[in-house]
Design a protein that fits this description.
Layout: H1 2-18, E1 36-39, H2 46-54, E2 67-70, E3 73-76, H3 86-93, E4 100-102, H4 103-117, H5 124-131, E5 139-145, E6 152-158, H6 159-167, E7 183-190, E8 193-202, E9 208-213, E10 222-223, E11 230-231, H7 237-241, E12 265-267, H8 275-281, H9 283-286, H10 295-308, H11 314-322
The structure holds heme C (HEC).
Residues 144, 146-148, 153, 155, 184, 186, 198-200, 210, 212, 223, 230, 232, 235-236, 238-240, 246, 249, 291-293 line the site of heme C.
């Protein structure tokens, strides 16, 4: 009896081998269950998907609770609690019968859900309650005319955030990474009046959020651009996640040529146009944290200048000593 079963067992093993049966899952084929494939074509990458889908999951959940990666392919999982995450369910449903999310299906869904899932501050007043009056003395501020908009922009970053991120560097070659909660404001000026405000706020998952406000201080879905408005956030990502260099940052500290909407310039004192620092940091081209402005370059140039007239703080002096800026 026993021997007979052993014989059957051996025959079954042989059959399994010949017929290609295997209990091991095929390594090429992920167990995606009823997940749908994401095929954005347009610049699909881990950081782009992390930005969009990380935006849906931020209550301590990780990206892998919604996204599966297999080789170069990405899949969106079927939401476990559709009533709790209606926006995620709507995105999943947008894949349709072919179970494939393409850009035309993905873009309107992520855009219309964005401010809700990110719980965007509804007005500049609510941002002021969190950040205080940006542009004031606690902020590092400079103006520029560049390629993001035809308006002149006034950029403000909290000095404490900037200093803290620079204190993490061990050399000027290190990437400059900002902490969670850091905010950078870009106010669009028309004859000195603020007509639009854009802000980037660092999330807990290392990505930044992009928000825009109109002249009345209310949240808006787009900002003005010469031909078509720029849609938040899907058209903000293009430049901020790409590697194209823009003027006047690209030529800084040399002057940039004017563009179709006029002068392109970084309006700062000459002492902040430190060619050595600009070259070593290479801040705009490196854009270590998807940041395109020249905050570290200009701020460190300013600290260096103030250190010579005994106007820099001890922390600032320690910083330039450690980074050997002289
Ligand atoms: C045409 C390319 C381009 C697009 C599109 C774009 N930006 Fe920018 N952005 C820049 C450049 C260049 C800078 C740095 C210089 C400046 O602020 O003008 C910048 C800077 C910023 C800053 C300050 C932080 C930083 O990186 O220096 C914020 C905030 C910002 N952009 C928000 C947005 C938002 C919101 C959108 C979408 C509505 C957007 N951007 C779309 C090019 C772009």
């Amino acid at each position: 009896m026993h021997a007979t079963w052993q014989k059957y067992g051996i025959i079954l093993v042989w059959m399994a081998l010949f017929m290609g049966c295997s209990t091991k899952p095929d390594a090429q084929k992920p167990d995606i269950g009823d997940a749908v494939e994401i095929q954005l074509a347009k610049g699909q990458s881990e950081s782009i998907l992390g930005f969009y889908l990380g935006g849906y999951v931020q209550n301590g959940d990780s990206l892998s609770s919604v996204l599966i990666q297999s080789g170069a392919n990405w899949y969106l999982k079927r939401p476990l609690n559709p009533t709790e995450t209606p926006e995620l369910q709507a995105l999943y449903d947008a894949a349709g019968a072919d179970q494939m999310l393409n850009w035309e299906e993905f873009e309107p869904m992520v855009r219309s859900a964005y401010y809700t899932v990110r719980n965007a501050p509804r007005s500049l007043d609510s941002l002021r309650q969190t950040y205080g009056e940006w542009g004031g003395p606690d902020w590092f501020v400079y103006e520029t005319a560049g390629q993001m908009t035809a308006f002149r922009r006034r950029l403000s970053i909290c000095r404490a955030d900037l200093l803290r991120s620079l204190e993490q560097l061990t050399s000027l070659k290190d990437p400059i990474i900002y902490e969670k909660g850091a905010a950078i404001f870009g106010e669009h000026l028309d004859a000195g009046k603020v007509v639009e405000t854009t802000v980037m706020i660092k999330r807990s998952d290392t990505y930044w959020d992009y928000f825009a406000y109109g002249a009345d201080g209310r949240l808006v879905g787009s900002i003005a651009k010469r031909e078509d408005p720029l849609l938040v956030p899907t058209q903000c990502i293009g430049c901020h996640y790409g590697n194209r260099a823009f003027e006047p940052e690209r030529s800084f500290p040399k002057d940039a040529k004017p563009g179709p909407t006029g002068e392109r310039a970084v309006y700062v004192p000459d002492a902040w146009k430190n060619a050595d620092l600009a070259k070593t940091l290479n801040e705009h081209a490196k854009r270590s944290d998807h940041i395109l402005g020249l905050y570290a370059t200009l701020y460190l140039s300013d600290v260096l200048m103030r250190s010579k007239s005994a106007e820099a703080s001890d922390r600032e002096l320690n910083l330039i000593a450690k980074l050997v800026i002289e």
